[in-house]
Design goal:
The complex is a heterodimer of chains A (288) and B (223). Chain A contains eight helices and eight strands; from the N terminus they run βαββααββααβαββαα. By secondary structure, chain A is of the alpha+beta class. Chain A has a domain of 190 residues: Alpha-Beta Plaits (2-Layer Sandwich). In chain A, the strands form three sheets. A four-stranded mixed β-sheet of chain A has the order 6-1-8-7. Chain A has a two-stranded antiparallel sheet with strand order 2-3. Chain A has a two-stranded antiparallel sheet with strand order 4-5. The radius of gyration of chain A is 19 Å and the shape is globular. Chain A starts with 11 loop residues before the first strand and ends in a 10-residue tail after the last helix. The two termini of chain B are 47 Å apart. Chain B is globular and about 80 Å long. Chain B contains ten helices and two strands. By secondary structure, chain B is mainly alpha-helical. In chain B, helix 1 packs antiparallel against helix 2. Chain B folds into two domains: 56 residues; 125 residues, no CATH class. At the A-B interface, helix 4 of A face helix 6, helix 9 and helix 10 of B.
Chain lengths: 288, 223
């Protein structure tokens, strides 16, 4: 008997409302606690510190009183690669198959026991979402008892990154199995740590393929590839929603939402005058 | 083997060219070479198969003997003690509280092991520090619900006939990796006769490929 358990593919993604984000950093803290992310004695050394979820500060570069500041949380973007076929930048370059694209969930894996630390993936990632363990994690006395048993801790010499709290998906799937509905995990059963920790409710997480999920209703992903750039798929039909470096065709599953135009413009690097032409369509290729 | 023979033959032809007197002596050398080779091979083979596993694995006795067969006959099937929780997670080896469902009073049976259990653990309210034969490495995610509920598999497919055992075998731990010997399997060559003999990644992948048509993405079984 061959069981078919790949008939319902999820495509987990999130949309982050930058107008709601206050930059409090709860998502970063909850992420580190949830995923056993090691911290360093000197966390100001950004070449050494590891932050699966990182909040960046964006400004509109205008003098007072027109200064505006926006905080942008950046998890792994879980790229689908060109045409959304699963050829994510990091997956394509890994010589050890230590990272692969889960076609059943759309989540890019990272297998620490398989990684040998060449860091090609870090070079390939346009979002700086991957981090290298230069040292073995050192937990303060007794703190190892507080580590999550559902996430394996990493050793020195391997790369790690956000997994969209995959262990929570595994737990949700187990629950669905136990209740006899193996193909449908509930929206509330699988939410990432950052989503549940955000006090502003700025992060919405769910299945982008499921019209019943809130994230789908907000993002309204286009089911067809972008006619103006064939590499871009799943573009939001809401002009207020953009993805980081969308024109690259990496097809991230993390969408950002902002009412403010200058914020949306920060999602990519535009030539002079380019933004005016494509501001309502940021996925468009720069050369026609 | 053949390489040594060739060498021996080459040696004999070379020296045979020197004179007829050496012929009988060379034959003797060839015979001795083969004998020594066989002795050395057998010695290496035996030390590799008998001595090496003893060096590689340390043996630990369980805190006390556990009679699975007796418990199955008294309490029912596997699920009585090893069950799925409401949230789909697996209870694994039961905690003391589960044991106390039956062992709430004095010693029930006549075995010494039960006396040890009651004296050392029940009366002191201490959890039994069992060694888990089937414990996978930390990087492995294994879902019992996926296999027993969704896949409809029985316990025996992976755990063998442990339900029929009357005593606990010693737990063997790989000194290098710290993993249970059950992962690699009892056979040092990795030869597998039953589906439960080995629990390496290849074994999981092979069954997944056969049963689901796909060996699965990394995150299906890793964490």
């Amino acid at each position: 008997m061959v069981q078919e358990n790949h008939n319902s593919a999820y495509k987990f993604g999130m949309v982050i409302d930058l107008d709601k984000c206050t930059g409090c950093g709860s998502c970063m803290v909850s992420c580190m606690a949830e995923n056993n992310v090691p911290f360093k004695e000197d966390e100001t050394n950004k070449k050494d510190s590891i932050t699966w979820m990182r909040v960046y500060k964006l400004t509109n570069d205008k003098p007072f009183p027109d200064t505006e500041v926006v905080y942008m949380p950046r998890p792994c973007q879980q790229c689908g690669g060109k045409g959304d076929h699963g050829h994510s930048p990091c997956v394509s370059v890994c010589p050890a198959v230590a990272t692969d694209y889960g076609y059943d969930t759309g989540i890019v894996s990272q297998i620490y026991t398989r990684c040998f630390g060449c860091r090609y993936c870090m070079g390939a990632c346009p979002y700086h979402a991957r981090y290298f363990n230069w040292w073995d994690p050192k937990w303060p006395e007794g703190m190892e008892k507080y580590l999550s048993p559902n996430v394996s801790p990493r050793m020195r010499g391997v790369v790690e990154k956000c997994s969209f709290c995959y262990h929570r998906y595994q737990a949700a799937r187990d629950k669905a199995y136990a209740h006899g509905n193996k193909d449908h995990i509930k929206e509330e059963d699988y939410q990432t740590a950052c989503t549940t920790a955000c006090p502003a409710g700025a992060i919405v997480f769910g299945d982008l393929n499921n019209p019943a999920h809130e994230v789908h209703q907000i993002v309204k992903p286009d089911p067809h590839p972008d006619p103006r750039n064939k590499h871009v798929a799943g573009k939001s039909r809401n002009p207020k929603i953009f993805r980081l470096l969308e024109r690259l065709g990496t097809n991230p599953k993390v969408y950002y939402l902002s009412e403010r135009e200058w914020v949306r413009k920060q999602g990519d690097n535009y030539l002079e005058g380019e933004w005016e032409k494509i501001k309502n369509h940021h996925g468009k290729a720069s050369h026609g | 083997m053949s390489e040594i023979e060739n060498k021996a033959e080459n040696g004999s032809t070379e020296s045979a060219g020197e004179g007829s007197a050496g012929e009988a002596k060379d034959d003797k050398g060839l015979g001795l070479g083969i004998i020594f080779f066989i002795i050395a091979f057998v010695a290496c083979f035996l030390s590799g198969t008998l001595l090496f596993p003893k060096l590689l694995y340390s043996k630990k006795e369980q805190p006390f003997n556990f009679d699975h067969a007796l418990h199955v006959s008294e309490a029912g099937d596997c699920e009585t003690c090893h069950s799925l929780r409401e949230d789909g997670s697996f209870t694994g080896i039961p905690k003391l509280a589960t044991c106390l469902d039956c062992h709430y009073e004095d010693v029930l049976g006549e075995t010494e092991d039960e006396a040890t259990f009651v004296e050392e653990y029940v009366s002191k309210e201490k959890e039994v520090p069992w060694h888990v034969y089937s414990r996978q490495p930390d990087s492995v995610f294994f879902s019992h619900a996926a296999h027993t509920e969704a896949g409809g598999m029985d316990c025996v497919s992976c755990h063998g006939n442990i339900g029929e055992s009357t005593s606990s075998r010693p737990y063997e731990e790989n000194r290098i990796t710290g993993y249970s010997r059950d992962i690699w399997g009892k056979n040092i060559f990795g030869i597998k006769k039953h589906s439960w003999d080995r629990m390496k990644m290849d074994d999981c992948a092979k069954c997944h490929k056969k049963e689901t048509g796909h060996q699965g993405y990394c995150f299906q079984c890793h964490k």
